[in-house]
Design goal:
Two copies of one chain form a homodimer. With 372 residues, chain A is an alpha/beta fold. In chain A, strand 8, helix 12 and strand 9 form a beta-alpha-beta unit. In chain A, 47% of the residues are buried. The N terminus and C terminus of chain A are likely disordered. At the A-B interface, helix 5, strand 1, helix 6, strand 2 and helix 7 of A face helix 5, strand 1, helix 6, strand 2 and helix 7 of B. The structure holds a DNA duplex (16 and 16 nucleotides).
DNA sequence: TTGTATGCGTTATCAC
DNA sequence: GTGATAACGCATACAA
């Protein structure tokens, strides 16, 4: 023990000898020499379930600790052809849904000895750089959460045998695994709930047009409403951009026609900022004057200032499923990709009010005085 | 071109041949063979500033594209002893300050061909696992943003020549580089501002006790107030935990003595949730009944529902500085660690009101009726 | 400039 | 169970 410490402390030139710091990285050969065994024995001592006697393993471990030896995973991966590193492409981290997702994903993967290599993909970025890096590092798999990654990237990686797992995103390409919530069903639940609460003039604030999340939520919402008599739906694009909420709010209540009684936003972030715009810029009350619903159930949705009604994504189950998909495809390269859908649930909070259709149409829409 | 495609498409067994998928990973030797050059020539063709003729390089590049060859960075790092991978230990990602920080850090590092390997460090976790992994992967450096990492970890890595960079965190250990805002100065600015606005009964909601951020902010706040006559400061611990805000609020306004006129929270997340508790549980108005100030200037602080006055962290400058520190220490191992302090600025919003000391003491504190 | 030979640190394949 | 030896894919010192 003491020996180990002194070995570690007494490395040459403790201060700033610029240029060449010759610190000794102990290798398995060094350990073998000290323990008086072969280098292969050292390797086996650090390999789970390898064929080695307990006595010898103990000797090796002790020598290793003395030298501060740790097996070099990089060198190991060169021959095992598995790095234990999984790429993660993320877009907007200002949405807590994604930051929570990657935190939990990383946590669960670490438990299974995998780690995430982060790739930030700016909106509209050329994803070719990402492709290159993923290949160059020989990553075990790539997880895509970004909405802005071209789908041909997935195809290219598939060709090279690198599994691709999509989270909160789907694609027609069946070569990629995916985990997503049942957006269409969730949105239809929102629609039914709003109708049941007596709302008739509805609005949908869309996310980025060509994303699977937006397409599915929009479809679920509109289809569920199509069969209900007397319901109108205003469609407006929000692009998952919280900074567009004010203009969205103004467009919804532009004074020409009566504003909506209830608004469904394609995600919570837009819903929260829309609530702010409605309340503090248009001087409308939520839910008395207008109801608001989101999707995701991010933490801020539960804040007292918002009390946002929303459809939750089962984030823990989604992460668990993703981990299974990853491990499955990495450990058995022949396994086929799978697409998984999980259902969340409607979380009813105070941002949705009740309408009485008989009297609501006139009293519901007060003077929508705009302000700065 | 067409040849390249057909090569890529025609790899054996396109479907699920379980078990052994024998896909051909082209190596530099393969490329060399096709291009009719030596393997080292291929290596040189992909090495910036290597000594090779343009003609030969062109031949190599073309052959490489035909085969879909990409240099294996893992194998390369075995020789260069640099992986281009930097460890990032993160704690609580539900705080947007950190999610924003790591996004920008990743972005900037990618521009310089570095990537971040994510390590989630659960609160109070044993950081030994982290230590092991960082060493095992031979990471170029480790960035610590988590508040919960023991400082002996830094020392251990330092011993092995792995640079450690702390962000939003400091330590006595001068072996680690660090970037942090001038917490003490910032907090003193908050104190001076509150006094100037006429507040006299103040309160400090502390973060986790032994963290450098909390220690410094607390010290700055209290020292600046120590010299001001007639000022009282109530101290209460919040542990950077948003779920404790309700009990914090109740303790501050427990009815025995007059509640504070202004509250400084050690970070924005606590300030926001405290505002909620004050408004919706204690039925107090902010800022009319009580003022609230935070620290960080996270995005939600600007939301209309909160309009939180706060002291900003210069996050872009902090990231830039961190990148410099990292690159500097990685590229020249002899360079000495540096500690950097950056100043933010007070961001005044509506969560702080003005008191008139002459009449404030009685009228300022209405019936603090508690509720559910 | 170019090719040959060697080594990076490890696991895998053999014989024993 | 154990030890030699050959890969893994690449960069580099050296000779040409």
């Amino acid at each position: 023990m003491q020996t180990a410490q002194s070995v570690l402390v007494h490395f040459p030139c403790a201060n700033d000898c610029s240029g060449s710091v010759s610190r000794p990285e102990p290798t398995s050969t060094d350990v073998a020499q000290l323990a008086g065994v072969s280098q292969s024995a050292v390797s086996r001592a650090f390999t789970e379930g390898a064929s080695i006697s307990e006595a010898k393993r103990a000797r090796v471990i002790e020598a290793a600790e003395q030298l501060g030896y740790r097996p070099n995973l990089i060198a190991r991966s060169l021959i095992t052809r598995r790095t234990g590193i999984i790429g993660l492409a993320v877009g907007d981290l200002s949405n807590p849904f994604y930051s929570q997702l990657i935190y939990k994903l990383s946590e669960k993967l670490q438990q299974r000895n995998f780690h995430l290599l982060l790739f930030t993909v700016p909106d509209r970025a050329n994803s070719d750089d990402l492709l290159e890096d993923v290949i160059n590092y020989r990553l075990d798999a790539l997880v895509l959460t970004s909405t802005e990654v071209s789908s041909h990237l997935g195809a290219r990686l598939q060709e090279r045998g690198i599994p691709v797992v999509l989270i909160n995103r789907t694609t027609e390409d069946t070569a990629s695994s995916s985990v997503a919530s049942d957006n269409e069903f969730g949105a239809s639940e929102v629609a039914r709930f709003l109708v049941k609460q007596g709302h008739r003039r509805l609005a949908y604030v869309a996310g980025i047009q060509n994303t699977s999340t937006n397409i599915e939520r929009e479809r679920g919402f509109l289809r569920a409403l199509a069969s209900v008599a007397g319901v109108t739906v205003q469609h407006i694009s929000g692009d998952y951009d919280v900074h567009k909420s004010l203009s969205v709010a103004r467009e919804l209540f532009d004074g020409e026609n009566a504003g909506p009684e209830a608004i469904f936003c394609a995600n919570d972030m837009m819903a929260l900022s829309l609530m702010d715009a409605l309340r503090y810029n248009l001087n409308l009350r939520v839910p008395e004057d207008v109801s608001v619903v989101g999707y995701d159930n991010i933490e801020p949705a539960a804040f007292s200032a918002y009390q946002l009604t929303t459809y939750s994504q089962p984030i823990d189950e989604m992460v668990d499923a993703a981990v299974e998909l990853i491990v499955e495809r990495v450990s058995s390269p022949g396994s086929a990709p799978r697409q998984i859908r999980l259902r969340g649930e409607l979380v009813v909070r105070a941002s949705v009010g009740v309408r009485h259709p008989s009297s609501a149409d006139t009293s519901a829409h007060p003077s929508s005085a705009a302000s700065a």
